[in-house]
């Protein structure tokens, strides 16, 4: 093979449903240039920081990434730090392009602060009567010229503020009645009509300098027998040659049933890259990256994929990364938390059968306190690190428990959350009694350091914070 395998990693954009050591090793091995962060990994700002802490670990090893989200505004808003908006359909109907640019510029600043440097937006799909709900009000509207104008200003707002944009879903998903996540839509329309309608925004955005475009998994039966994603007509003849697009072409997610249930990996890889495509989007990176990467290696070695096309694709991705990739993100906040911990885990046994959590019921302790929300998140944060056998809740005011502590089985790890126990003899007695159920108890002291003196001869972690970041970092200290 004439190209380093690490360079071939630049041809992959991947989402990962979880980050464990196997995932880290997968990323290290195949070096995907793009990382897509899913909405389920950032339901709130705490989770978002956790994601970027993991990404930071890889960046600290010298890896570079385009870090992206599907944050479009309206129907699909995914990043919790970015202010919510009325959505693209409202923007399109309002017709205020300066407002669209202002929103994109504002969103880009928040994205950059978090650690994103790319967004899969804007949506250039045209609204057609009966269009699939997967398009919905992600579209700017039904007038191709207005959609093109709206999109141009959105792209300008993003890219002038350090976030690469990606126009989608080429050549337009608006005519599809079916959802390509579930089926392979077939559309009957002539190329002439498509050029005057759905393709207009893409041509206009190419003319105004958009730097990446995402394809759609749709068959336009009157134009080509293959889906646009792997169509020589749509990718090479129209987008590359006719429109003169020199930026990065990215597939929509390849696990979508339109592709995964109709075409082999070999056919997808061969046709996409030979047509002039650049990056394979693999949403299920944990499950599918290895197979697609090995397929690409094999096809290159067999001479079934044009090596010159591959070199051009790598160069295009490198150009985009050079302009936008950055290692600055909010992941440092989680490590910052652990630096302040006081802990003693010398007696912790790393072998146990079950894990129990003893946790306070959500309650604020004063008028100047909103930590009840933190306590409500403890179970979720601990569950990311341990398979909990059970959770026993206690009342911070009277120390009553939701279940009997006697139900805890022997040879268990007990994580006991301590909140201002020194203020109440009943609370102190409750926590002290926990140790009678197991010799393997970790007291997680979240607030006042005065509690340390009551548990300093036991396993404890004093976080000085009830914040989810601190709880997560404490779990990393405990986990085997």
What does this structure look like?
It is a single chain. This protein has 480 residues and is α/β, with parallel strands linked by helices. It folds into two domains: 5-330, TIM Barrel, CATH 3.20.20; 336-478, Glycoside hydrolase family 3 C-terminal domain (Rossmann fold, 3-Layer(aba) Sandwich). The protein is 39% helix and 14% strand. It contains 19 helices and 17 strands. It has helices spanning 5-8, 21-30, 45-59, 88-94, 97-114, 144-159, 191-196, 200-207, 232-242, 257-260, 265-274, 285-301, 307-324, 332-339, 372-376, 378-383, 425-434, 452-455, 468-478, and strands at residues 12-15, 34-36, 66-69, 118-119, 164-165, 167-170, 186-187, 212-215, 219-220, 248-250, 280-282, 342-344, 354-360, 388-394, 412-418, 441-445, 459-462. Strands 5-4-3-2-1-11 form a six-stranded parallel sheet. A six-stranded mixed sheet has the order 12-17-16-15-13-14. The longest helix has 18 residues, at 97-114. The radius of gyration is 26 Å and the shape is elongated.
Total E-strand runs: 17
What integer value in Å does the Rg equal? 26 Å
CATH H-level homologous superfamily name of the largest domain: Glycoside hydrolase, family 3, N-terminal domain
Helix content: 25-40%
Strand content: 5-15%
- Class by helix and strand content? alpha/beta
Q: Which overall shape is indicated by the principal axes computed on the Cα atoms?
A: elongated
User: Major β-sheet, in short?
Assistant: 6 strands, parallel
Low-confidence stretches: none
Output mean pLDDT. Answer: 92
Under CATH, the topology of the largest domain is which? Answer: TIM Barrel
CATH architecture classification of the largest domain: Alpha-Beta Barrel
Indicate the CATH class of the largest domain. Alpha Beta
Strand order of the largest sheet: 5-4-3-2-1-11
